[in-house]
Amino acid sequence: MTQTFRDEIVRQCLRDLGEHFRTMDLSQHADMLAGHPEQSSHTQYNAWVGKYLSQQCPHVRRAEARSNARGALWRNRLSRCSPPSPAPVHHDDAPATMGMNGAAIDLGPQNPRDKPFTARMRRHQSWYRSAVLRLPAGTGPQPQSSRILGNMLQANDAQLGRNFLTPEIHEVARARLRHGGRSVEPFRLLHNMLSSQPMCFNLFGPLVHDAALATRLLQCIPSLQVERVLSIQLEHAPEPAREYLADGTSFDAFIEYQHRDGRRAFVGIETKLTEPFSQNVHDTPAYRRWMSGPTSPWRREAEASASAIAHNQLWRDHLLAVALRDHPAQRYAHGALVLVRHPLDQSCASIVAGYERLLTEGDETFIDQPLDQLIESWQAAIANDRHHPWIASFRQRYLALDQSEEAL
What we know:
Strand order of the largest sheet: 8-9-10-11-12
Largest sheet: 5 strands, mixed
Radius of gyration: 23 Å
Oligomer: single chain
Number of domains: 3
Structural class: alpha+beta
């Protein structure tokens, strides 16, 4: 027998979810749990929600035959995350396929020169644009480009913020663009769905104006020992640059916090999606200054190889964190660089493994953080509150590659 749920609550929760969602995305929504306290405590609760969706909800349709650990995949016509848009433009060199719901999915042109991981992610972002956002492909990857690519947004959609998971994240991005600075690239941020820059905003944007949420989520990285977050900035470099590395190195995200020992600390964050690390070699006296301190995280024998091309950019990012921590002003008692990388990027994983061999045993100033592990811990931390749809959307866009494979 199908369990009865309050239809108005179900409909409201469905509006919060994306165009595609799993059964548990709905069943574990904070409003569902709060509105159905008796049902939600039962061991069959998730199964009841699945049956209710199948039998009582005309606005959703099962999108696939198979289920995973979070239940069946559903198509959601009540979603306000993906308002109706013009039908995707068909490209002769990228024929449209049919999604599980019978709607056309137009991936748009891909890049035949992509390496396997980049090709897979470009395809997934192209699928997300067409199947989830229901938008036509745009041109890129540069503002002057005339080439259509499946992972690019058209100008109007880009200006409307469709590269961001929520309107709030879009507003954070707009505010950062108004602030200016060479580290923010407007076209890349607004148009390119494959870029790590919008991914960084989609990941950390909701934390910018919510210190309580930021504290809860940063505490999921135990080695940081976060007591409470004080501030968050996106695309940030300490100034004046001459007092640090005397170059343009910056953090994708910068978070100040109170350490559990009561002192001020920070974490600088570098995010990587598909872009390779810079292949330019930079090495200056300003860099070497920060390698020779008494609390340097690098092994002595690493001095000659630290600037190697394979990990030169990662070394510079790490140097910036050390320079900020060891600055004579002594603003921070603790500091670290966190690299957030996609778990399927084996090239990045290999570079990280090689770089870590240059560091002293027990070093805590560099933290390798695979994206899937971070999202898994964040999802558990906010499983029953209003932020769950944001995390579910982030997972769908960047990690749930099975959805694009199943649909095509």
